Write a sequence for this structure.
């Protein structure tokens, strides 16, 4: 897939800061930034929301990471899956588990709570959503109201970013190649929609 909107040059003070930060963190400016910078206000709003989400602490960081990766795998956003796996390594999360998120249903490394979180992420992502009272009740009992609301918002943001990236043709840039444990591929029968 090719980019559906051309990259543009990051300009101004903010653009210069983003380039410097990106090069320090990734060694280059990600293509996704150049695409979304076509509308700096949209870029800044997405980044502001992302930064706020990173500060929330009612839900466990691993659960939020697994949820975002489950959404990415379901939607088919290779960029988000690649980047979030790379971030899992940076946050010192369990890479043996994180690497298996794309095939979490077949893997035996996850706890029942982690499985419920990924099932919830997929159920929220399905159109229309298929979240059941039973699944929601189990998560509420295990996490509490504040963490469930936080997890819900993280999954909503994951849907925003994965669907935007996929629609714009933004794909993986190989961030997870630096991880010691390879990222598992999603099973073929996963049900990821394709535009054919």
């Amino acid at each position: 897939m090719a980019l559906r909107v051309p990259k543009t040059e990051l300009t101004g003070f903010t653009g210069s800061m983003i380039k410097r930060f990106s090069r320090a963190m990734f060694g280059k400016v990600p293509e996704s930034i150049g695409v979304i910078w076509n509308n700096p206000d949209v870029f800044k709003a997405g980044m502001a929301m992302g930064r706020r989400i990173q500060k929330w602490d009612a839900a466990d960081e691993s659960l939020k990471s697994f949820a975002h990766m489950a959404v990415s795998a379901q939607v088919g956003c290779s960029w988000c899956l690649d980047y979030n796996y790379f971030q899992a390594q940076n946050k010192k999360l369990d890479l043996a588990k994180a690497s298996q998120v794309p095939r979490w249903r077949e893997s035996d490394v996850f706890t029942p709570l982690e499985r419920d979180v990924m099932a919830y992420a997929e159920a929220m992502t399905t159109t229309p959503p298929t979240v059941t009272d039973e699944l929601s009740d189990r998560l509420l009992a295990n996490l509490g109201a504040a963490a469930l609301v936080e997890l819900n918002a993280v999954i909503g943001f994951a849907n925003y970013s994965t669907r935007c990236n996929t629609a714009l043709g933004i794909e993986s840039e190989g961030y997870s190649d630096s991880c010691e444990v390879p990222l598992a591929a999603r099973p073929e029968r996963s049900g990821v929609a394709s535009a054919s």
User: Anything to note?
Assistant: The two ends are 13 Å apart (CA to CA).
